[in-house]
Design goal:
This protein has about 200 residues and is mainly alpha-helical. It has a single domain, classed as Tetracycline Repressor, domain 2, CATH 1.10.357.10. The protein is about 75% helix and about 0% strand. The protein has 10 helices and no strands. The protein has helices spanning about 5-25, 35-40, 55-75, 80-85, 90, 100-105, 110-135, 140-165, 170-185, 190-195. The longest helix is centred in the middle third of the chain and has 26 residues, at about 110-135. It starts with a helix and ends with a helix. This is TetR family transcriptional regulator. InterPro entries: Homeodomain-like_sf, HTH_TetR, Tet_transcr_reg_TetR-rel_C_sf.
């Protein structure tokens, strides 16, 4: 029995969503096609009807993951974004969390084609922070540097916190210290404003 184009598209989207979550949990190499298809509720043999290779799926799942994550933060100011990013809930929910924190190590060993959606996703995240920082501080060029620095600090803190045993006091302390430091850095008034 042939499936409709609409159903085929729904299946494809289910595979991409499942892959996006599973890759964040287990890495690109830690998740096989059979496991992906099972999570999507489909048979293993149907994978190649949707994607020419696992690498192709990695590219699409990465782009999907970044779009999903960035869309969650649209409308929030930079401080709120970083508070949510540096929360215990985000730390403990890898499958629905930040792709940068979960997969940067894996992405660094991939082809340029696979790394391209990482660069695009990171850029989207930076612009989201930069827009609010520039608005608050009337500081266009400086806002981008602050956004990059804050994201890098938050990312490092999240990775370090995840490396600690679950429930370790240090894991929470790392997040708390990074939240305070990021908030201070992005709320700090630029030199041109302090003289006005």
């Amino acid at each position: 029995m042939r499936i409709t184009e609409e159903k085929k598209q729904q299946n494809r989207e289910a595979i991409i969503a499942a892959a996006s979550e599973l890759f964040r949990q287990g890495g690109f190499d830690g998740i096989g096609v059979a496991q992906l298809m099972e999570r999507a509720g489909l048979t293993h043999g149907g994978f190649y009807n949707h994607f020419p290779s696992k690498e192709n799926l990695i590219v699409e799942a990465t782009a999907h993951g970044f779009d999903t994550i960035v869309s969650r933060y649209v409308g929030f100011n930079a401080s709120t974004i970083l508070n949510v990013y540096l929360s215990r809930e985000h730390r403990d929910n890898r499958g629905a969390g930040c792709l940068i924190a979960a997969l940067s190590g894996d992405a660094a060993r991939q082809t340029d084609e696979t790394r391209a959606p990482f660069a695009e996703g990171i850029e989207k995240f930076i612009r989201l922070l930069e827009k609010d920082i520039a608005f608050k501080q009337n500081d266009g060029p400086g806002a981008r540097a602050k956004a990059i620095s804050a994201l890098a600090q938050a990312l490092g803190a999240l990775v370090m916190s995840r490396a600690c045993p679950d429930g370790a006091p240090l894991a929470d302390e790392i997040l708390e210290v990074a939240r305070d430091a990021c908030r201070l850095a992005i709320d700090q008034v630029g030199p041109e404003q302090s003289t006005q």
